[in-house]
Structure formats: C-alpha cells, structure tokens
Design brief:
863 residues, Beta-Lactamase, 3 domains, eleven-stranded mixed sheet, eight-stranded mixed sheet, 32% helix, elongated, binds 2-oxoglutaric acid, binds fe (ii) ion, vitamin c, DNA-binding transcription factor activity
Length: 863
C-alpha cells in the first residue's frame, strides 16, 4: 500500500473509480503518496499513451513570454510604452511576467512559505481542511476535477476565497498561513486593479472601465503544492487549460520551472523571474474584449525536483451574483461584430465545475450562433469593397470555433447553395460518454452533385486536413484542388472541396472566394499562364513554394495580385497521390497570412520574419507528408520508398556511400574557396546524390523526377537568413529536380555542360525555381557534370552563377576557360561525366532566348 492506495492493483485489473475514491479518502493528497516513499506513480496519475506519444514529438523553442517592468507606471511618459507592451503581450500571448510591480519581496516569500508550512505540517491537521465543498472559505483538496478528468493531477491545492473580502472570517484560514495570505491578498488586489486599468487603456477604454465592471470584485487564491514526482514524464501537474476568470496573477517559487504556455503548437517554459509575477488573460476577459485579448492555454508539468509551489490569484468577478457579462459595447462595430453571447456569471461558474478542466473551454459555450457568425463573414465582402486597401494588413480575426459552438463541438460540414442547410458529423469519442472538444475547426462546402469516388477522396483529404491544422499553424489556410472535366477540358477546382483554417480572417474569406471562382486548366492544351501553381504541381507531381508571393509574376500565378491584396505572404502547393494508383488526385495548397508575420515580429524579433515563413513552409511540408500517409495518401517526398531505376538515364542511381564522398566534396569545397576570390563569381553550389535519392516515374504525364537527388551547398554568400539568395538556396534544398528542367535538370538528362546568359528568361515551367533565381538576381549560369574516381558512378553537378558583365554574355564566356583551369588544378579525382578529362576541350551547350520567349541551344567549344 502506498498512502492508502493499493498500487499493485495495476497488475490485477483496474477499477479507476475505486482507486480515485480510495485516494480521495486518504485526505492526504499527493504529498501523502510521496511521503510513503513510492517509486512508481499510481495508474490514476498516468497520462494516456496517445498523449504521452504526442509529447515526445513536441519540440522546444527558445522564445520567452515578455517580461514587463512596471516601475514608474504612474508617470505618463513611462505609462505609454508599458501600455503598448501590455497590449501586444495580451493580444498575442495572453501571458506576460511583471517585475517592479509594487508587492514587496518579503510578502511574496511569506506567501510561498505559508503554503509550504500548510502542506508540510502534520497530516492530521491538514485533513481538517480537506473538502470538496465550494462554499468553504478555505479548503484543501487534490484536483477539483479528480472524478471527471482522464488523469489525476500531481498536485495538492489549498484554496482561499476572498469573494467577499469584508465578510471573510479570518478564523476559517489555516493558522500557519493566515497572516501571509491576508497580507498577500491585500497587495495582489491592488496589483490586479492596476493591471486591469492598464488593460482597459490598452483596449482604448477609460482606465476604470474593467474595474467598474466589477472584474476585480473578489478573488481566490489557489495555492498549489507540486511534490517531487518519481516518474515526472508520465504525470501532469496541472493539465492543459485556459483560466476561466478575467485575470490571473501567478506567483511561483524559484527553484524549478514547471509552468508552460502553448505557443505555435509547442509548450514553452515560463522561467521564474526573480521577484516576478506571471500575468495571464482569462476566458472572461477574452469574452468581454470581444476576442481582442487572448486567453491562452497553459499547464504545469510534474517535475522530479520539488516541491514546486505556486499561488494563482484568480479575479473572476462577483462569483455569487447574477451579473451578466458580454462583449463591451465600445468594442463592437459593424466591422467587429460581437463574437460572444452574454453570460450570467452564476451559470458560467456552474458550467465550469460541471466539466473536467482538460475538456472545458468556457469560450466555446458562448460563441455566437453560426448564422450570425456567417453573416459577419459575408459582411467582409462589403467592407472590402468600401476600403480595398484595408485587407492588406488583415489582422482582424474571427474565431471559427463559432461554428463548433453551434454544432456542440462536432465537426462541421456546411452545405451551401440554394437550400443552405447545416449537417453535422459526430466527433463523439465512442464510449467515452463525453464530448471531446476538437482542437481545430474544420469545415467543408459541399456542392450539389458529388460522385461517390469524389466523396471518398474528400473524406481522406478531410482527415488529412484535420491533422494538418491540428499542428496549430497560425493563420494558415489549406485547401484542396481536385481535377474535374467540363466541356471536354480538364480543370483543377477548389470550389466545393475541403479546406481548413484555424482562424477565419477577411483575407482568408476573400482568397477562398477568388479561388472558388477560378479554375485552372490543366490538360495538355493549357498554356503556361493558365496552369498557375496548382496546375503545375498537378502536372509535374512536384511541390512548389514561395516564401514571398511577390516572387511570382502574374503569369506564374494568375491569382497573384488578388492573393497579395488578401494579405497572403507565403505559398506552397503539394501534389497528392493515391497510394495504390499512384495517380495525382489533386493538389493541397497552403497559404500563410501576413498576420503570422505580425505576431512573430512582436514576439521574437524583427529579423526573423522571412525565416519564419520559410520555416513554416518546411514544417508544413514535413508534417503534411505524415498526415497524408495516415489517410492512405502520399506526396512525392517519400524517402522510405524503394529507389526506382530510370534506365534511360544510363546512370546507376542506387546510391551507396563509398566513404569517398567526403574526400570528393573536400576537393570541391577547396576549389570553391579558390574561386571565392574571383570577382566574376556570384554563387556556386554542388549537387550530389543523396542517400535519399530517388527517381520516380509515376506522374500523370510521365515526367521523370529525380527527387532530392541532391545536395550539399557550398557558397560564398553572407549568411543572411532573410536574403533572396538564402531563399533561393533553401528552395534548392527543398524542391526536387525535374530531369530536363532548368539547367541542372537538363544536365541530369544528358550529362552535358550548359551555359545560359539569362536564366531569368526561363518560364517557371521550364525552370521551376526561376522565381527564386530572379529575386536573387541570378542571371548567368554555367553548370558541369562530373564524376570522381573516389565514388564510382555517382555524379556531381557543379552550378556556377556568374555576375553579368554585358547583355550578350560575352564577358561571362571569357570567364569559363579560367574556371576550367581552376577545376583542373583543384579537382584531382574528377573527370567530366561524359568521359573526358578536365583540361581537354569541353563542348558546352549554350541556351539563348529569342524575342518570342522561346529559346535555342548551340554547341560551343572551350579551349
Ligand atoms: O502552477 C502553475 O504554475 C499553474 C497553475 C494554473 O495554471 C492554475 O491554477 O490555473
Ligand atoms: Fe491556469
């Protein structure tokens, strides 16, 4: 027995309710368990395996919630910048820390010490306070939702209610922490009022606005005690939740960080700051601010070092009254219609206690009805037509959870057309007996006619989209483009196809609208300007992307200008294949909104902007693969597929690392070092076969693909992550080469050497990375195909970008003999892939463009 719980019953069948009851009856809390010296945690504390598995894939980032210095806050010069910091933190993170907040360190330490004394006193004394009766002014318990949650929390809590401060009977408070709690309560109330004053001003309201709404009338201290946990990776201190009240001020002891906030789908530690307090916005403040201030999800992990002590002070308004709260009138306008219903605080509190913490989000219950919400979305059209420029900074967001609210947390399928009707699909967990709140919001527009086959694919796509959106990518729209035939022609359409977003903003509505009325022609008669990115991806079977839409010309992307005016920044399209048929069944299009930038700028730093979109795209790329696969679909970058032989390439492609590759690469690297000094060279990179090299011949039109048969890049350029050159290089890594396309692709087909004085003249179908190359101002290109005696049949393509000296390229031509001499000297193990030695006469194919946008090629000899 451990603390009254028979841990051994794990092995002999498991009666969870009985175990919970036994644990509760010990009245000794989690500390009672640890005091008995247990080494394994009882099963009621072990999180479900799916949850634990997800945890292991969770990455960590270095970002920190803002720390705001409140010193001198009453002086007007100082107040302004602080207000701005508070506003940004509350609108983006919903969390920040404050220092110099006016509560003396002795009061903070006294509070922590009081909580420690209470928990570490004689257990019999503590038991007197053990209660689940919420009317008691002070009570002790382990997890308020113990009998409703999937996992019991590894913590004990002492709650002291100051809901009616004048009436509090001091004798109700435990003697060991009475004075410290009363002292802390006095100070924290003053700070709460100060913060609500700042938040009122940040919302553009009078300082006293929120105070006059009685948001700080009454508060409760939840004093948490998290004992050291013998198996912290299996347990959770406080499960993921958002705080239901208006505002929370959290004091934590300094020994170990345990509080984490959900940020971009990742859990981020909130490191204790000496003398600091954590502030977070609660659900009610999000509601009354009409969604402007953000109530963010957070949790406290179990730790091996302990005890961790924290004191959460909740300002939840006059809990016992019938006061009604709704979005503040001043914050509602035609452009920003009310997002939430009014709520009576008594009803609100009752709902909170009727549900387990992990399943409850107060806001989900009070979102406006779908019809009202839809009309708000449609109003975006009018707003747009009145102020066309406005959408460029489309930051106004409407939460799609409004849909979910109406459908009571069910997946929503919206049918539009003449008979608009709503159909809902059950997301009830079978047998779970309670509604599982979907963490994302997904919906689909269904056209009147649907073939069975179409429905089947749609179901699979929907399933993938749901998973993709689950990774919590802010401000990203994903939509599916499916083929259709009409009038004997073949098109791609997204009208009536699944799409998913995590937030709804005007830019999204508009982009979706443009796309729904634009079909891309994709049959063999389609010309380049008709294909657009989805069309090209569908035909080539290869992904395409751009971190900045402006890199595309209007010809590359017919909806470019519309997309830009909707505030879209990053773009990516992925081909989707049926696993069995290996046919491209459509294209998934991802667009990333500029609002993403704005958030990230506030939170990280200015310079990371461009990088972020590239990272987002990479992230999407890698994740989508996994998600498509779970839906029995795939896209091309499947490195686990066996390599396929493409015989007509006449190259052995089953790559084996001969160990000599590193030596061969060193030779190339050294040669690049020598070349670095020549003024005519802009950039150089080497393409080498990779372990994952793969040639696939399964695309709809039979194009031969060589996937990522790539590469290490050695270049001479400033490693500025936001430069067009960096974007070009990242794109080279990210995208597959198509045999026969671009210069390197042509070389893969023939092993010849190529020279092109103006690669920017290629169309995007002829050279899929041309938009990146144009933006990096790469014009003159020379590329040569080599083999090294150190690595047998492996080929190496060296690609050089020269600085243009004159329009006819003559100046660059004159550089080639020099280049070949350096290669001959430096690349001792190499010969040209067509057989000759470096230094012998080299035949180079030159590509020249004609006035009509076509091009010719000629053979030239060097040396
Ligand atoms: O202990 C902590 O750090 C977090 C506690 C918390 O989030 C809460 O009580 O709402
Ligand atoms: Fe919380």
């Amino acid at each position: 027995m451990a603390g009254g719980i028979d841990v051994a019953s794990d092995e002999q069948g498991y009666d969870r309710t009985e175990m919970l009851r036994a644990f509760d009856e010990t009245k000794a809390g989690v500390k009672g368990l640890t005091d008995s010296g247990l080494l394994k945690i009882p099963r009621i504390f072990v999180r479900p395996s799916e949850e634990l598995a997800q945890e292991s894939t969770c990455k960590k980032t270095q970002v920190q919630v803002p720390v705001i210095d409140l010193s001198g806050i009453q002086d007007s010069d100082r107040r302004k910048p602080v207000l701005e910091e508070v506003r940004i933190a509350s609108e983006t993170w919903g969390f920040f820390q404050v220092v110099n907040h006016g509560i003396p360190l002795t009061v903070l330490d006294g509070m922590i010490d009081g909580v420690r004394k209470f928990n570490e006193q004689d257990v019999e004394e503590k038991k007197k306070y053990y209660s689940r009766d919420r009317t008691r002014g002070a009570r002790f318990y382990s997890s308020h939702d113990l009998f409703m949650s999937r996992t019991a929390s590894w913590r004990d809590t002492l709650t002291i209610s100051f809901s009616d401060p004048d009436q509090i009977d001091h004798n109700e408070l435990p003697a060991c922490c009475r004075d410290s709690a009363l002292e802390y309560s006095k100070h924290v109330e003053i700070l709460g009022n100060l913060l609500l004053g700042l938040l009122s001003e940040a919302l553009g309201l009078e300082t006293d606005h929120l105070k006059n709404m009685e948001c700080t009338q009454g508060h409760r201290l939840h004093c948490h005690y998290y004992p050291a946990c013998p198996e912290p990776e299996l347990a959770m201190g406080t499960t993921k939740h958002s705080d239901a009240g208006f505002l929370t001020i959290l004091l934590q002891n300094q020994i170990v960080s345990g509080l984490q906030v959900l940020y971009q789908g990742q859990w981020l530690d909130i490191q204790p700051v000496p003398g600091g307090l954590v502030i977070n916005i609660g659900d009610l403040l999000q509601l009354v601010s009409n969604g402007k201030l953000k109530s963010n999800e957070h949790r406290a992990i179990a730790t091996s070092i302990g005890p961790r002590i924290s004191v959460a002070c909740f300002f939840s308004g006059p809990v016992n009254g019938d006061k009604v709260y709704g979005p503040i009138e001043e914050l509602i306008s035609e452009e920003n219609p009310a997002m939430y219903k009014e709520v009576a605080i008594s009803e609100y509190v009752a709902k909170f206690f009727a549900t387990g913490l992990e399943d409850y989000r107060a806001l989900d219950y009070y979102k406006l009805m779908i019809t009202e919400f839809l009309s708000a979305v449609m109003a975006a059209e009018e707003i747009y037509s009145i102020v066309p420029g406005e959408l460029e900074n489309c930051q106004d967001k409407y939460s799609i959870s409004a849909f979910a609210e109406h459908l009571e947390s069910k997946l929503c399928l919206v049918s539009v057309g003449t008979e608009a009707s709503y159909v809902s699909m059950d997301l009830l967990e079978p047998g779970a007996g309670r509604i599982r709140r979907p963490s994302n919001h997904f919906f689909q527009l269904i056209p009147a006619t649907l073939t069975n086959h179409g429905t089947f694919i749609k179901e699979k796509i929907k399933c993938s989209l749901q998973r993709i959106i689950e990774c919590y990518i802010d401000d990203c729209l994903v939509q599916f483009w499916a083929p259709k035939t009409a009038g004997g022609r073949c098109f791609l359409t997204t009208s009536g196809q699944p799409f998913a977003v995590d937030w709804l903003c005007k830019g999204f509505c508009w982009y979706r609208k443009h796309c729904s009325s634009h079909d891309y022609l994709v049959d063999s008669e389609a010309n380049e300007a008709e294909l657009g990115p989805p069309g090209r991806v569908f035909r080539s079977g290869l992904p395409e992307s751009s971190p900045d839409l402006r890199l595309y010309s209007a010809k590359d992307y017919p909806l470019r200008n519309q997309a830009l005016s909707c505030g879209i920044k990053g773009y990516m399209a992925l081909p989707v294949f049926d696993l069995l048929g290996q046919n491209c069944i459509g294209v998934l299009e991802f667009v990333v909104f500029s609002a993403e930038y704005i958030n990230i700028v506030n939170e990280v730093e200015e310079g990371l902007k461009g990088q972020f979109v590239v990272l987002t795209l990479l992230f999407l790329l890698s994740n989508s693969f996994v998600f498509l696969q779970t839906a029995d679909l795939r896209w091309t970058l499947n490195i686990n597929q066996p390599c396929l032989e493409a015989s007509h390439l006449q190259m052995k492609r089953n790559y084996v690392d001969h160990g000599g590759q590193q030596l061969a690469l060193n030779e190339i690297k050294q040669m690049f070092e020598v070349l670095k000094r020549s003024a005519q060279l802009h950039l150089a990179q080497a393409w080498i076969p990779s372990k994952n090299s793969l040639i696939v011949d399964n695309t709809p039109n039979g194009t031969i693909l060589m996937e990522r048969a790539i590469l290490k890049v050695f270049v001479d350029y400033e490693d500025d992550y936001n430069s067009p050159t960096t974007h070009f290089l990242k794109a080279c890594k990210l995208h597959s080469l198509i045999v026969g396309k671009g210069i390197v692709g042509r070389i893969l087909a023939t092993c010849e050497s190529f020279f092109c004085p103006s690669i920017s003249n290629f169309s995007i179908t002829e050279y899929p990375l041309v938009h990146y190359a144009r933006s990096a101002r790469l014009t003159v290109s020379f590329a040569i195909c080599l083999q090294s005696s150190l690595t047998g049949d492996d080929i190496y393509v060296l690609e050089f970008f020269l600085l243009p000296g004159s329009s006819d390229g003559q100046y660059s031509w004159s550089f080639l003999p020099f280049l070949l001499t350096i290669m001959e000297r430096q690349l001792n193990s190499f010969k040209i892939a067509t057989g000759q030695l470096l230094g012998e006469e080299l035949s180079v194919k030159a590509i020249e463009f004609c006035k009509d946008n076509g091009f010719d090629s000629f053979n030239y000899s060097i040396r």
